[in-house]
Write a structure and sequence with these properties.
Radius of gyration: 24 Å
Structural class: mainly alpha
Largest sheet: 3 strands, mixed
Order of helices and strands: HHHHHHHHHEEEHHHHHHHHHH
Shape: globular
Number of strands: 3
Oligomer: single chain
Helix content: 55-70%
Distance between the termini: 58 Å
Strand content: under 5%
């Protein structure tokens, strides 16, 4: 269990977002899943306790987030008096959308309510009891070094996530170098907008000035979502300048559901269904608008939607004549490297017209560079949670809530955060090398075809694919 992807939130999220109800049979399947949820949660709890007894568990602070998310799922009817819970509201809405007679509709809802009362609710209560017991005995140390064989595990995680042999110290030094570079580019924007003061003072200005945030109410949330949809629409118009291949599935912008806001990241992507019946979704976490600066929205859209994850993931799963692991599997350095590369790419096509929006792009690139420093700081140099938060607050413009949530994520997902910048740097290096070797023969659209048309691959394999393409182009008649 952790606050990023534990079953306390992924299970109800699956029912609400992925289990579609288009027929009575679909509704029956939903009820069957509700009826089985108690046993499913019990199995997860038992496995968690087995690991806990071996000294393998998240640090103590994580439990408060997990417990809150679990309590939110069973908040409201039929678990307790009040408005319908997220699960009941979803099931009722789905069933009401079907063309059913009153008796069939009421029977389905009654059975769903019964399953929630006899399986879902008790399962969550048993889970909560175990989590509270673990919480009282959990470690207050943060790094994965505290676990059995923790140092070797972290080395393994870095190899898995970066698909390289870079050591923790090498990654730490790359991060320090990139942070310094990006700070220099940010100072150029400070001059452009006429800001007088230090970089840290500029960070504080962008963290706190009201012009950079939508209002912290439903109107502000809708404003944010509409701006995001506008960026998607604008990018769709210029994609043919960058790509030859496009996904068939569309992408939609959505708000993270309130029941899982507290345990979710600021933005993420959910892939479309393989059969094309459901689009891809870019989710924005709008729990607190003060943690969602508008100047970062443009880059966030490009990363999560187009030309980022939606392009990469949808094109991969729409590939034909390749095995399923090629269509649906992944390598974080490749996919998140592509996401970060996709934030930079639009700059070359005239996007980020507002200098503050370009600052937002740099802020997000800086965020990924700082991740190299703090992830290795926590798990290799044995920094505390508080030391890592302080580094982000000093070296990035992100709000304090952002910095806290990020460090808490890196603690429970060791190594994962290093993949973004390592992947991005390699994609850009491969592109620069190909352009230098090909000269006038270089076509950015064909380069992107090479990167995307084979599905997710380790960075070394990507390098081989690009090199083979360059050699073919050099050998072809001019």
């Amino acid at each position: 269990f952790n606050q990023m992807y534990g079953v306390q939130s992924t299970t109800p999220s699956f029912l609400i977002n992925q289990h579609q109800v288009r027929s009575v049979d679909d509704a029956e399947a939903y009820v069957a899943r509700l009826e089985a949820m108690g046993d499913y949660l019990d199995a997860q709890v038992a496995e968690s306790q087995t690991y806990f007894d071996q000294g393998i568990a998240p640090p103590r602070f994580v439990y408060a987030h997990v417990i809150e998310a679990a309590e939110n799922v069973i908040s409201g009817a039929p678990f307790e008096p009040g408005e319908p819970s997220a699960l009941l509201a979803d099931f009722t809405r789905d069933v009401d959308a079907l063309d059913l007679d009153r008796e069939t509709r009421d029977d389905l809802v009654m059975r769903a309510v019964s399953a929630m009362q006899t399986s879902v609710g008790p399962g969550y209560e048993r889970m909560l009891a175990t989590l509270r017991q673990q919480q009282a005995a959990a470690s207050t140390d943060d790094g994965v070094w505290r676990l059995p064989n923790g140092e070797a595990y972290y080395e393994y995680q870095l190899r898995q996530f970066t698909t390289t042999d870079l050591t923790a110290e090498e990654i730490h030094q790359i991060g320090l170098r990139e942070v310094e570079r990006i700070h220099g580019e940010m100072r150029e924007i400070m001059e452009e907008v006429g800001f007088e003061g230090t970089l840290q003072e500029f960070f504080e200005f962008t963290r706190t000035d009201p012009q950079f945030f939508a209002s912290n109410d439903d109107a502000g949330r809708e404003e944010y979502l509409e701006l995001a949809r506008g960026y998607v629409s604008d990018m769709e118009e210029i994609l043919p300048q960058m790509f030859n291949t496009f996904p068939r599935a569309p992408v939609e912008v959505r708000r993270v559901e309130p029941f899982r806001e507290a345990a979710s990241g600021k933005g993420f992507y959910q892939r479309p269904s393989a059969d094309g019946s459901r689009p891809g979704y870019f989710y924005a976490n709008l729990r607190d608008m003060n943690d969602m600066p508008l100047y970062q929205l443009e880059a966030l859209v490009y990363h999560e939607a187009i030309p980022g994850h939606h392009m990469q993931i949808s094109i991969a799963q729409e590939l034909e004549n390749v095995p399923s692991f090629r269509r649906f599997g992944g390598f974080t350095a490749y996919s998140e490297g592509w996401g970060l590369y996709s934030e930079y790419l639009p700059l070359e096509y005239g996007m980020y017209e507002d200098p503050y929006s370009n600052f937002g792009r740099l802020a997000m690139e800086l965020w990924r560079a700082a991740r190299l420093v703090v992830d290795t700081g926590i798990h290799h140099h044995r920094w505390t949670r508080e030391e890592a938060i302080a580094y982000l607050m000093e070296n990035t413009p992100n709000p304090e809530g952002d910095c806290i949530a990020a460090i808490e994520r890196y603690i429970v997902m060791p190594g994962q955060a290093t993949a973004y910048m390592i992947g991005n740097l390699e994609i850009r290096r491969l592109r620069d090398d190909a352009r230098e070797r090909l000269g006038d023969r270089f076509d950015i659209r064909e380069f992107h075809d090479v990167v995307l048309a084979n599905g997710a691959v380790p960075l070394a394999i990507l390098g081989e694919l690009v090199d083979e393409w360059v050699e073919r182009e050099l050998e072809a008649p001019a």
